[in-house]
């Protein structure tokens, strides 16, 4: 192919500068990165010849119309003279603008903001004693696609708001696609799906001004949860550190409802699903989360994509709690059909059944993360449902919403939604049909297409509904009496937290209710807190400057569940980020050693220097600068190391913005701010060389918890590693918790 093939428009601007000039030789588009390959779509819903394979949607070297006609110009509309009106006959202009006009699809009514990743699930086989599901047999590997999300915010909202997170997994199994559509909190707001539009309307922005975005700190949310006290348990988890995860990688996931596993002989076991992150369960602190929303609203999305791109693949172990499938569907007095209740792990241990590794980023956000369609009714033989009234309503909602969100009933043909098992569904036609179905008899039974498709028996993998006995009953709109207890599990959760976690929870309630204008809503929520825990209620009431109400129900004795606390354990440090602050006074050989030691542990060191480029030492070594004093902010780092004096440049201009306000410590004000935030947020801080004196000038005393000062990287880096393993140095500030 020669450059002569290229049509050059007379008068079109061209750059003389070679590095910014438009390439003139046709080139193949860049291939996807090796870690961005999606699962192969093998569904026979494509044409048998592969001619309609969607991967051929964009190919060739030349710009074309949607019909494949080569184009020589896409920057100028066809006009009657260069200063004249645009002509209607410009078919390329009309096609280009029309397609653009229709680029958006409706965002999800909830869970609109999300981030996805591909991966693989490897089964340990431990569940195969109680389920015939093929993908849970020993050593079976199944491709997966996971989408994490916030619930309340719009598609462009910030990541680190206080909210529940969605955790949806699509398993492309040989027996059909199985979806586990869960959350990062094991209980839900409501017991019956009929209330779902109400809780969502209450939690979404107010309909008059459409504010606040992605927040629960407003009147309508607290109005609802204080009136529907079944929401109190979920709300308590939201107000705890679980509402502001450090990363999608450091969240637990829960199936919430009780499901039913079925073995080859038809025997059933009730189960609850859990995802346990290998990275540990960690959260942000509230002030940090708020700062992130301004500085980097894509914080969680970026963190997930970066870690996968860097090869630090996040992993979760899938586990199950098992319960006998008894007639009343309860376990230790807990109604397993009530989705506002969880079963403490101390009562039923979580048994690991497989490992999920996320190892590839999506190639295209819209095609994959936006168009993926999950559904709790996507089941495989060996996994069945229960009569949880919330789950039952979900079974209707997902397919229904996807028909409007994805523009018709054929969205299962989109590459991300295509099963990897053969599909022969007899569904025909409809909007966006891409399959070219052969045959004349899409009905059953038929004789014209040779009787195809045939019905499967259980022996060849048919899904058979468990013949559960349905209680003889009357038709009524009523909950069972076992659903009436709305407070004991909220109390159990709160009493299981450590004092520092309780303090955070108290602060969160005080903040959120402090944002409510209506006094009667605050009073009603305080009443609910009084019924949950007197100490919690008193602390929140004090913060609000309101009287402490008396409880109207007796507090039950609850056995705490230490497993719900996130503190007290050591976790792997791989994937955590350490900021190394340096300047001309730093010893570069120490920095090089620190970077090497951190890399060896899978930790990401980022060098922060006064300006971009490289830091060069006296012996000519050079280390690339990744963040400058201007672009760095504490929120990006799990730990900070000071290696230089970080005094302001002699020619520093007077500070104008808040970030560069003077704090009188003699340090560059931006570094001063970074240190004080990291200190307040209980992050590990290390120093050596001139960095030690710099820390002191910032008022950070090395006797305080979580400060590692030493001669150099050989002593400081291991100490920082230890501190990182515990996530934060919470002991830095005394915690009181709520009085019993
Ligand atoms: Fe959902 N939920 N939900 N939900 N849900 C949706 O489906 C719904 C519930 C969850 O990443 C919607 O395609 C009802 C519990 C996740 O694409 C919608 C009820 C749990 C996601 C819907 C519930 C969830 C959704 C919106 C009460 C945790 C994001 C867009 C009966 C176990 C999936 C869509 C993704 C999405 C309905 C309750 C988790 C409207 C009616 C409980 C993670 O269909």
Describe the structure.
A hairpin with a 5-residue loop joins β6 and β7. 24% of the residues lie in helices and 15% in strands. It contains 16 helices and 20 strands. The protein has 740 residues and is an alpha+beta fold. The strands form four sheets. Strands 1, 2, 3, 4, 5, 6, 7, 8, 11 and 12 form a ten-stranded antiparallel beta sheet that branches. Bound molecules: CIS-heme D hydroxychlorin gamma-spirolactone 17R, 18S. The site of CIS-heme D hydroxychlorin gamma-spirolactone 17R, 18S has 25 residues, from β2, β3, β4 and α8.
Structural class: alpha+beta
Percentage of β-strand residues: 5-15%
Task: Work out the oligomeric state of the chains in this entry.
Answer: single chain
What ligands are attached or bound here? CIS-heme D hydroxychlorin gamma-spirolactone 17R, 18S
CATH architecture of the largest domain: Beta Barrel
CATH secondary-structure class of the largest domain = Mainly Beta
Portion of residues in helices?
10-25%
Keywords: Heme, Hydrogen peroxide, Iron, Metal-binding, Oxidoreductase, Peroxidase
EC number: 1.11.1.6
Protein name: Catalase
Organism: Paeniglutamicibacter antarcticus
């Amino acid at each position: 192919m020669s450059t002569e093939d290229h049509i050059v428009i007379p008068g079109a601007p061209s750059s003389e500068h070679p590095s910014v000039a438009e390439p003139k030789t046709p080139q193949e588009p860049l291939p996807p990165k090796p870690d961005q390959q999606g699962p192969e779509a093998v569904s026979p819903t494509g044409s048998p010849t592969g001619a309609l394979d969607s991967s051929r949607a964009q190919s060739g070297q030349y710009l074309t119309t949607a019909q494949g006609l080569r184009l020589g110009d896409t920057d100028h509309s066809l006009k009657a003279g260069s200063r004249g009106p645009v002509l209607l006959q410009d078919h390329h202009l009309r096609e280009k603008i029309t397609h653009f006009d229709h680029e958006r699809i409706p965002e999800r009514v909830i869970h609109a903001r999300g981030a996805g990743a591909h991966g693989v699930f490897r089964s340990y086989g431990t569940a195969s004693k109680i389920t015939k599901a093929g993908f849970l047999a020993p050593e079976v590997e199944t491709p997966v696609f996971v989408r994490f999300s916030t619930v309340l915010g719009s598609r462009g909202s910030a990541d680190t708001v206080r909210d529940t997170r969605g955790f949806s997994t699509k398993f492309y199994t040989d027996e059909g696609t199985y979806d586990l559509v869960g959350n990062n909190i094991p209980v839900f707001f409501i017991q019956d799906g009929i209330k779902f539009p109400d809780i969502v309307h209450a939690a979404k922005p107010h309909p008059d001004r459409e504010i606040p975005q992605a927040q629960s700190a407003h009147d309508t949310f607290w109005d609802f949860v204080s009136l529907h006290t079944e929401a109190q348990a979920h709300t308590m988890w939201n107000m705890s550190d679980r509402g502001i995860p450090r990363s999608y990688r450091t969240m637990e996931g829960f199936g919430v409802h009780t499901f039913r596993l079925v073995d080859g002989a038809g025997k059933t076991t009730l189960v609850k699903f859990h995802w346990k992150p290998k990275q540990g369960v960690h959260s942000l602190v509230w002030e940090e989360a708020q700062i992130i929303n301004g500085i980097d609203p894509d914080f969680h999305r970026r963190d997930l994509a970066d870690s996968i791109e860097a090869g630090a693949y996040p992993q979760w172990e899938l586990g199950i709690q098992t319960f006998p499938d008894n007639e009343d569907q309860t376990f230790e007095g807990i109604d397993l059909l009530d989705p506002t209740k969880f079963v403490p792990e101390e009562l039923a241990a979580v048994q690991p059944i497989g490992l999920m590794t996320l190892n590839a980023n999506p190639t295209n956000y819209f095609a994959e993360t936006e168009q993926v369609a999950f559904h709790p009714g996507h089941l495989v033989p060996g996994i069945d449902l229960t009569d949880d009234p919330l789950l039952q309503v979900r079974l209707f909602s997902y397919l229904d919403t996807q028909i409007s969100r994805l523009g018709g009933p054929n969205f299962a043909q989109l590459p991300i939604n295509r099963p990897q098992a053969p599909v022969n569904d007899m569904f025909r036609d409809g909007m966006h049909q891409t399959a070219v179905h052969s045959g004349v008899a899409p009905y059953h039974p038929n004789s014209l297409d040779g009787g195809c498709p045939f019905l499967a028996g259980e022996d060849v993998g048919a899904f058979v509904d468990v013949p559960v006995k349905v209680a003889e009953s009357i038709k009524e709109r009523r909950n069972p009496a076992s659903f009436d207890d709305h407070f004991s599990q909220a109390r159990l959760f709160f009493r299981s937290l450590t004092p520092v976690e309780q303090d955070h929870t108290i602060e969160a309630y005080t903040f959120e209710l402090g944002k409510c204008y209506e006094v009667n809503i605050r009073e009603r929520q305080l009443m609910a807190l009084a019924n949950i825990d007197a100490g919690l209620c008193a602390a929140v009431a004090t913060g609000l400057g309101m009287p402490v109400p008396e409880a109207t129900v007796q507090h039950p004795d609850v056995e705490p569940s230490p497993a719900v606390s996130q503190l007290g354990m050591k976790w792997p440090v791989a994937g955590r980020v350490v900021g190394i602050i340096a300047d001309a006074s730093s010893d570069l050989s120490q920095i090089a050693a620190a970077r090497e030691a951190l890399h060896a542990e899978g930790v990401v060191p980022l060098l922060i220097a006064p300006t971009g480029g490289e830091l060069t030492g006296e012996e000519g070594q050079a280390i690339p600068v990744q963040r400058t004093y201007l672009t760095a902010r504490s929120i990006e780092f799990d730990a900070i190391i000071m290696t230089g004096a970080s005094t302001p440049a002699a020619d520093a201009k007077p500070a104008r913005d808040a970030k560069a306000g003077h704090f009188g410590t003699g340090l560059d004000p931006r570094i001063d701010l970074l240190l004080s935030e990291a200190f307040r947020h209980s992050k590990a801080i290390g120093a050596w060389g001139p960095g030690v004196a710099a820390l002191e000038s910032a008022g950070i005393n090395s006797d305080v918890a979580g400060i590692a000062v030493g001669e150099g990287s050989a002593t400081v880096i291991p100490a920082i590693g230890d501190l990182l393993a515990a996530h934060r140095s919470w002991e830095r500030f005394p915690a009181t918790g709520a009085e019993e």
